[in-house]
Write a structure and sequence with these properties.
Distance between the termini: 52 Å
Number of helices: 13
CATH topology of the largest domain: Endonuclease III, domain 1
Bound molecules: iron/sulfur cluster
Structural class: mainly alpha
CATH architecture of the largest domain: Orthogonal Bundle
Strand content: under 5%
CATH superfamily of the largest domain: Hypothetical protein, domain 2
Radius of gyration: 19 Å
Amino acid sequence: MARKSTKPSRSQPAAASVQNRAKPATARAAQQSPQWSPAEVAEAFRRFQAARPEPRGELEHISPFTLLVAVVLSAQATDAGVNKATPALFKLADTPEKMAKLGEARVRDLIKTIGLYRTKAKNLIALSKKLVAEHGGQVPNTREALEALPGVGRKTANVVLNVAFGQPTIAVDTHIFRIGNRTGLAPGRTPLEVEQKLQAVVPEQYKRHAHHWLILHGRYVCLARRPLCGKCLIADLCKWPGKTALKPAA
Ligand code: SF4
């Protein structure tokens, strides 16, 4: 079966530690940045869409269940690292029934190259058993049911709802948290605040892919340490005082 992709491209630290890594001063500074007008926000996403009409990620999966497993495994790990481990895991266990049957020790062994593998193996077995017992072996399509699964938080639920079920959720990872604050698009002290602000400002027609566009932008252009403002599609719209795009080259 063909593999699908989820989160955009290569290595990506999970959002679990986003809040810890966030610098309050940066967030405060961004919160004082000029606000984006609705027309500017719409223009930014129009450009993102024009540049990449169907953005995709690289967390490999073959079904909603394997997507859920991959996203759980990606917490505080990279997509590339997860993708190295999941082919062998999914070959043996691509359904909750098979995962539960495989057992914690075997799962642990198969994912031992991924950070926090002991806890993740425990969670994968527990969530698989819960899916079988309470959801007929299917991945539920509601936030409440997803977040009730072991090892599944808001960000994981948002990714699954978006990618597997086409819902316009916006999962805020470290890249989106940084972009929201730095650019002034959606400043917030926590990932939830940034998510809520993005939900409030992103036009409806762009919400389905907003998560992927912003992650890609953060991963390849608006980098954490040295943002490539000179190559940025939205440089003229960005409110970050430190942006370099519009300055003449030295
Ligand atoms: S101009 Fe620079 S800081 Fe602003 S969004 Fe683009 S890359 Fe990021």
